[in-house]
């Protein structure tokens, strides 16, 4: 939390300001001019040093990736840092690296399992390990039965595993919890896999009615 350093530095800023004010009136106080110029040079050097340090700090804050990597270098087991970097890696197309971060969170904080299981399932699904992802969604739903996204994502995975009947059940459950056009669209696909053409068409029409560009 480097940004909080300004709180502890406020008193030093006041002290330096007082020193600068004293230097400005030093001639009137008949202080040795050599001391005045030495102090002024010291201030210039001091400001230059802080300028360099500021430039260095902006390199840390340059991107989201450099920020969280710096934080993890400082505290490797920071779960907030691991989660944010994992989410960034997943969103930038690096699910394997993201998976490592999420697994580390589970090792450090097992109590975070309900939240991390969903992210691990997404990472595993992106890596092609659909069965492992399905197991993780099932474990997540055992802990949080009303997780809308888990029901939906689990249903989609079940379709890819060739289990449309179970997929329909999960997708209907997701719709019951939260009515989203995408849920209806995926339910239409699952019903089509079951040969229920009328049901699939009805769900597809609901999806398009709610979101015409879907």
Give the arrangement of secondary structure elements.
Blueprint: H1 5-24, H2 33-60, H3 64-74, H4 79-91, H5 95-108, H6 113-126, H7 130-143, H8 148-160, H9 164-177, H10 181-193, H11 197-210
Task: Provide a descriptive summary of the structure in words.
By secondary structure, the protein is mainly alpha-helical. The protein has eleven helices and no strands. Helix 4 runs antiparallel to helix 5. The radius of gyration is 29 Å and the shape is elongated.
Essential attributes:
single chain; 214 residues; mainly alpha; 11 helices
Question: What level of helicity do the residues show?
Answer: over 70%
Write down how many β-strands occur, each being a DSSP E stretch of 2 or more residues: 0
SSE class: mainly alpha
Give the percentage of residues in beta strands.
Answer: under 5%
Global Rg: 29 Å
Largest sheet: none
Q: Can you write the helix and strand succession as a string?
A: HHHHHHHHHHH
Specify the number of helices: 11
Low-confidence stretches: none
Average pLDDT: 91
Shape: elongated
The end-to-end span amounts to 42 Å
Brief sketch in words of this structure:
Helix content is 79%, strand content 0%.
């Amino acid at each position: 939390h480097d940004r909080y350093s300004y709180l502890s530095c406020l008193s030093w800023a006041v002290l330096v300001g007082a020193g600068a004010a004293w230097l400005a009136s030093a001639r009137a106080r008949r202080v040795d001019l050599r001391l005045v110029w030495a102090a002024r040079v010291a201030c210039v050097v001091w400001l230059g040093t802080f300028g360099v340090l500021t430039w260095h700090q902006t390199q840390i804050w340059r991107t989201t990736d450099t920020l969280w990597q710096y934080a993890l270098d400082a505290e490797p087991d920071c779960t907030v840092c691991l989660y944010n970097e994992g989410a960034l890696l997943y969103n930038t197309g690096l699910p394997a690296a993201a998976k490592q971060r999420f697994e580390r969170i589970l090792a450090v904080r097992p109590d975070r399992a309900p939240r991390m299981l969903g992210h691990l399932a997404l990472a595993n699904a992106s890596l092609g390990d659909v069965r492992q992802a399905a197991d993780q969604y099932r474990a997540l739903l055992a802990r949080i039965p009303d997780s809308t996204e888990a029901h939906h994502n689990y249903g989609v995975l079940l379709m890819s595993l060739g289990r449309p009947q179970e997929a329909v059940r999960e997708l209907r459950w997701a719709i019951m919890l939260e009515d989203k056009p995408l849920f209806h669209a995926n339910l239409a696909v699952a019903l089509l896999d079951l040969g229920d053409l009328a049901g699939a068409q009805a769900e597809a029409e609901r999806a398009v009615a709610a979101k015409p560009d879907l």
